[in-house]
User: What shape does this take?
Amino acid sequence: AQTVTQSQPEMSVQEAETVTLSCTYDTSESDYYLFWYKQPPSRQMILVIRQEAYKQQNATENRFSVNFQKAAKSFSLKISDSQLGDAAMYFCAYRRTSYDKVIFGPGTSLSVIP
Amino acid sequence: DVKVTQSSRYLVKRTGEKVFLECVQDMDHENMFWYRQDPGLGLRLIYFSYDVKMKEKGDIPEGYSVSREKKERFSLILESASTNQTSMYLCASSPGTGVPEQYFGPGTRLTVT
Assistant: This one.
């Protein structure tokens, strides 16, 4: 069965600095999707970034980028130039196809220190 | 923009009551999901539906049922609420064909006393 692990329950970063959140997953599939979702305090969960496993190039969305290591089954999120609004719970997620259920990790709570 | 709405942000119910949580999406999405979110456990899938009147059990379906009579609406039913069902409930939808990301509602914080 597929599993998603986030080994850092909590992390903190100074404003304007860079932070990396870790995620590992387990699957026997060769093609799948990986996501990072952000849930700010008392606010709606939103998609941060998506990676297709068949793509070798790491996905990037403005200050957010991923380091996708398929052989190692690792999918980390790098946040550059951290801002106060980046403070949130971050969930790593796996989905085999666009019709399958999604497997979420337990989340990492990120604090941003002014 | 995709909009996923949930009928209540906060709900307080008594043990043994039948509870209905409603979720509506406005983008003609095929898939809809119900999760519960508890600290340290992440999101756990209760049920999902990949088409009208179709449903599949997730990881923790016990004590819950669902209904999807129309494509835009997915209801979660707690047949007889218990205190261990006190939690945050999140609804999500996703388009289905070739688009894998999910869009979430604001959540319903349910307290069962």
